[in-house]
């Protein structure tokens, strides 16, 4: 026996067995890793259903509310997986934040925005798109909201899987509209409200792109193209941070404090101006200290824009949480209201547990599935550095804040991606302008051929066309899927 154990052939066999075991463990780990995200997501969905059971276990329609809570949690997960790219993609693409840091900041501020200021646009999602009275009964209205939730979640899930940054707002609005048409015909849709929402979808990316381009033009003219770039940055970077702080303070005064004290717009603007001026004063010595010893070149400016970019990304996450939580909990809140009172034409009140499902679902979704689209938005549309990414984040934040204040469920995807394209197209225009000026100053300078200049475009046209096509198809696809789900639910329940 001892001789067998000392046999080299026995040792070789043992080594081969150990190597196979090691490979098996590696393979098991590799196969199991993709199942971690769906597994945690399933646990969260089940917990949402248990929370609904805790609050509605003995009430009428408790089963419906539990199912709706699960659908709402599923939708919130998909919002986090898809829309987080709009918030953190620019910061990650500019290398100002690591992927882990971006996800941590986004999770905190998304949740804060949803819980502090997320109630304003919920009523538009739940009741403004379709006329509740056209539904006939509360039961039909509830089936329509269920169909809208599930169809929107399925469509966004599919889009995330293929890597397309579609609009979750488009998805849920299309779902509500499709279910309303299936339940009560085209007359059920509030077409004036839909027209206003559709107009905002066109206006918001254009506005986001224009604001981002204007901020980039300001940075280029006042900082980058100056002879002493560091001195110019010491003057202008604190001003830009002050603008951002003032916008955030104004929004928080209008929305975040409304449960404690009512503040009108002029007072909120005064508060924003005071906070912005204070932050501007604080940032002056900070930027001066940061800029000591920096070389007078563009690369040095990236250091000075690190803090503003991180803060603006956090602001955008807060605004996104306030605006897009409605996509998850709006139909759910309407279902809870109709199940509680039986009167589905009253104003929607939002229980805190419903808001918590939306807030935590968004955070879990971005943590588990967000990195894929963060990379897409951050680096595959156009090349971003900290200055450009700051313009994108600040533009998107300001536009989303305005939209949430007005109660319009605009698409944060459209705004943020529009801002990215705005920055890229402005860089193309600015480069052409500088080439023309150089050609006038130096006529003998060689000029690229038209084909070469098209190849050097700073915005990838293929991504532009793909994203626009995805935007166009989202509403009809979600509406058709929602109508099909409504017919399936209603036929199974025997309600109509």
From TrEMBL:
<comment type="similarity">
    <text>Belongs to the inorganic phosphate transporter (PiT) (TC 2.A.20) family.</text>
</comment>
<feature type="transmembrane region" description="Helical">
    <location>
        <begin position="260"/>
        <end position="282"/>
    </location>
</feature>
<feature type="transmembrane region" description="Helical">
    <location>
        <begin position="35"/>
        <end position="56"/>
    </location>
</feature>
<keyword id="KW-0472">Membrane</keyword>
<dbReference type="InterPro" id="IPR001204">
    <property type="entry name" value="Phos_transporter"/>
</dbReference>
<feature type="transmembrane region" description="Helical">
    <location>
        <begin position="63"/>
        <end position="81"/>
    </location>
</feature>
<protein>
    <recommendedName>
        <fullName>Phosphate transporter</fullName>
    </recommendedName>
</protein>
<dbReference type="GO" id="GO:0005315">
    <property type="term" value="F:phosphate transmembrane transporter activity"/>
</dbReference>
<keyword id="KW-1133">Transmembrane helix</keyword>
<feature type="transmembrane region" description="Helical">
    <location>
        <begin position="236"/>
        <end position="254"/>
    </location>
</feature>
<dbReference type="GO" id="GO:0016020">
    <property type="term" value="C:membrane"/>
</dbReference>
<dbReference type="Pfam" id="PF01384">
    <property type="entry name" value="PHO4"/>
</dbReference>
<dbReference type="GO" id="GO:0035435">
    <property type="term" value="P:phosphate ion transmembrane transport"/>
</dbReference>
<keyword id="KW-0592">Phosphate transport</keyword>
<feature type="transmembrane region" description="Helical">
    <location>
        <begin position="464"/>
        <end position="489"/>
    </location>
</feature>
<feature type="transmembrane region" description="Helical">
    <location>
        <begin position="303"/>
        <end position="322"/>
    </location>
</feature>
<feature type="transmembrane region" description="Helical">
    <location>
        <begin position="412"/>
        <end position="429"/>
    </location>
</feature>
<keyword id="KW-0813">Transport</keyword>
<feature type="transmembrane region" description="Helical">
    <location>
        <begin position="140"/>
        <end position="160"/>
    </location>
</feature>
<keyword id="KW-0812">Transmembrane</keyword>
<feature type="transmembrane region" description="Helical">
    <location>
        <begin position="389"/>
        <end position="406"/>
    </location>
</feature>
<feature type="transmembrane region" description="Helical">
    <location>
        <begin position="350"/>
        <end position="369"/>
    </location>
</feature>
<feature type="transmembrane region" description="Helical">
    <location>
        <begin position="197"/>
        <end position="216"/>
    </location>
</feature>
<feature type="transmembrane region" description="Helical">
    <location>
        <begin position="172"/>
        <end position="191"/>
    </location>
</feature>
